[in-house]
Amino acid sequence: IGTYNGAIEKGAITDCQPCLAGYLCTVEGVGDINQYACPVGHYCLLNALDPTPVLKEPIEIQEELLQPQIV
After folding, report:
1. Selection from 57, 42, 41, 51 nearest residue 19 by Cα
2. Helices (H), ranges, the chain
C-alpha cells in the first residue's frame, strides 16, 4: 500500500515504487497506476495514503485591491 509495480514479471516487494504524485495507491497489487488517479477535488502527493481536499471555497478578493490606485 502506497506503492505500485508497473514492471512485467517483477513481483517482489523490492520492485515496487512509491505511488506517484497525482495517484492514490490504497490497495495491494497496484500494477497499472493509471487506474488509481487521485479523486476529483483532491490532490495526492508522492506516496500518499490519503487524498487531501483542495480549498473548498474561493478566497475572497478585497474589492479595494481591484480598484486602480491614483498616486
Report:
1. 51
2. 63-66
pLDDT in tens, 30-62: 889 999 999 999 999 999 999 999 876 655 655
∠ CA 6-7-9, nearest 5°, is 130
Say whether 13 sits in a helix, a strand or coil: helix
Give yes or no for a contact between 17 and 3, defined as CB atoms under 8 angstroms apart. yes
List, in sequence order, every residue forming a beta bridge with 56; answer none if it has no partner: none
Neighbours of 48 (CB within 10 A): 21
Is-above-0.85 flag for pTM?
no
Q: What are the two backbone dihedrals, phi and then psi, of residue 13, each rounded to the nearest 5 degrees?
A: -60, -30
Q: Do 49 and 26 meet the contact criterion of CB atoms below 8 Å apart? A: yes
